[in-house]
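Weekly sync, protein design subgroup
Attendees: M.S., D.O., the rotation student, P.L. (late)

Item 1: inverse folding check
M.S. brought a backbone from last month's batch and wanted to see whether the design step gives back something sensible before we order anything. D.O. pointed out we never logged the input encoding, so this time it goes straight into the notes. Structure tokens as presented (110 positions):
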């Protein structure tokens, strides 16, 4: 799969959405099942047993948890898309200047 440039099995992700797994942390009024983090943990544990390659953690857990903290129409729509399996999110962290080597910092100081 990696050699083909794919990050996950899209068909499997669609099946997960059909079973409601992608909406496990999405509120019911946004189209999810709102079963909580314990249920998400059980799903993740079972997927881990077979090394499933999916965006479950980044999308159904991390993104859904973050979006639940924002009470806007846009976040509710995004949560609905997660529950439907229509979007995939990824976590990105900008470490800024901390990723530069010490030599670069010294050189940039003059």
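Designed sequence read out in the meeting:
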């Amino acid at each position: 799969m990696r050699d083909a440039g794919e990050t996950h099995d899209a068909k499997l992700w669609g099946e997960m959405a059909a079973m409601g797994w992608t909406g496990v942390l999405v509120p019911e009024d946004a189209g999810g099942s709102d079963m909580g983090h314990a249920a998400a943990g059980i799903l993740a544990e079972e997927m881990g047993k077979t090394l499933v390659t999916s965006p479950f953690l980044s999308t159904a857990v991390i993104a859904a948890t973050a979006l639940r903290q924002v009470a806007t129409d846009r976040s509710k729509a995004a949560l609905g898309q997660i529950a439907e399996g229509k979007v995939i999110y990824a976590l990105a962290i900008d470490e800024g200047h901390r990723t530069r080597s010490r030599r670069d910092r010294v050189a940039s100081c003059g």
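Discussion: Residues 37-49 form the longest helix (13 residues). The radius of gyration is 18 Å.
Action: P.L. to compare against the previous round before Friday.
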